[in-house]
Write a structure and sequence with these properties.
CATH architecture of the largest domain: Beta Barrel
Distance between the termini: 36 Å
Radius of gyration: 20 Å
Largest sheet: 8 strands, antiparallel, barrel
Order of helices and strands: HEEEEEEEEEEEEEEEEE
Strand content: over 45%
Strand order of the largest sheet: 1-2-3-4-5-6-7-8
Keywords: Signal
Structural class: mainly beta
């Protein structure tokens, strides 16, 4: 099992290079599967960081809808060549990169008739965006994804985004970032990546500490709740890339190992080393309290991947 550390490295490379015009966008549209000519929906959320006037890097989560016998999504890291940044008006861009996918695929061989497949592919994109004079922008984008061993897809997306001009991106909410210790209690919703999407109630306790102006590390105790397919509990350690969008809000991506014990494991309740890939948004209410929303993907080698969606409250000390 491989986690997409190279995707995160694309964003890490841009952190100290540019302090201006970082932005977040959301898009939705239509998808075509080339081998079967099927059509379904597609959605994406992207973070983009300029590197100079004509280049940028982006990190995106893409949900490729529900073609027959497949539920595929993934993370894409891309490098962009764009027309010059403008305060208002049209910008054009072309991007290429790598795509790490998660595919819940129907099969007659696996238990419960599905597999959780993982792998790498390529992604190429064309984008047109219109920047308004109030930091909002509209955009249209075409993606072509070619995953290794899977069907190629084409996406047509439209959406909107917001540009955070003038924010250096470091931990602006702190006078000294080195003392950003936080204990966060969260709950939410666990969804097993099967065709029935079995769900349960998770609980987590996370300890987080700043390791630099743009880097956090965390240790988390996790109980994913109980379903007919999985009842997993364990502990995870993650390294995070963090960007401040303003003096209250942070956005981050994290990845790391997750040692878990599954009470439904067909091998006999053994502990398994799995992976945890996460995204988080943190709102700093004041010097002592924060609210946190997180998405976590548990990546397994025994076809029990899961999404753990969390809302939590943290105490800083």
């Amino acid at each position: 099992m491989r986690l997409p550390y190279t995707v995160l490295a694309l964003l890490a490379a841009a952190l100290p290079l540019s302090a201006r015009a970082q932005d977040i966008s959301g898009m939705a549209g239509a998808l075509k599967v080339h081998s079967t000519n099927e059509r379904t929906f597609v959605g994406a959320i992207s973070y983009t960081q300029p590197v100079g006037n004509y280049n940028a890097v982006s990190l995106s989560y893409i949900n490729e809808g529900h073609p027959e016998d497949h539920h595929r999504d993934g993370m894409a890291g891309q490098v962009w060549l764009r027309t010059k940044n403008v305060d208002q008006g049209l910008m054009l861009g072309a991007g290429i990169g790598r795509y790490f996918f998660f595919d819940t695929a129907k099969t007659d061989e696996a238990p419960h008739n599905f597999d959780n497949d993982h792998g790498w592919g390529s992604i190429a994109s064309l984008q047109a965006r219109w920047q308004f004079d109030n930091r909002w922008y509209a955009l249209a984008q075409v993606n072509r994804i070619r995953p290794s061993g899977k069907d190629a897809t084409t996406h047509l997306l439209i959406g909107a985004g917001y540009r955070y001009d003038g924010v250096p991106g470091a931990k602006l909410h702190l006078q000294n970032w080195a003392y950003d210790d936080t204990l966060t209690l969260s709950t939410g919703h666990t969804i097993v990546n099967s065709f029935r999407s079995e769900s349960s109630r998770p609980f987590t306790l996370e300890y987080r500490r700043a390791a630099g102006k743009y880097v956090d590390w965390s240790a988390t105790v996790i109980d994913e709740g109980s379903t007919a397919l999985a009842h997993r509990r364990g502990a995870a350690a993650q390294l995070w890339l963090i960007r401040s969008l303003n003096e209250k809000v942070e956005f981050g991506m994290g990845a790391g190992p997750y040692m878990a014990w599954d009470g439904r494991d067909t091998r006999g309740h053994d502990a398994r080393l799995t992976g945890l890939l996460s995204a988080v948004a943190r709102y700093h209410v004041n010097r002592h309290w924060l609210a946190q929303v997180a998405w976590n993907r548990v990546v397994t080698d025994y076809h029990r991947d899961a999404d753990v969606l969390l809302v939590g409250v943290g105490r800083k000390f």
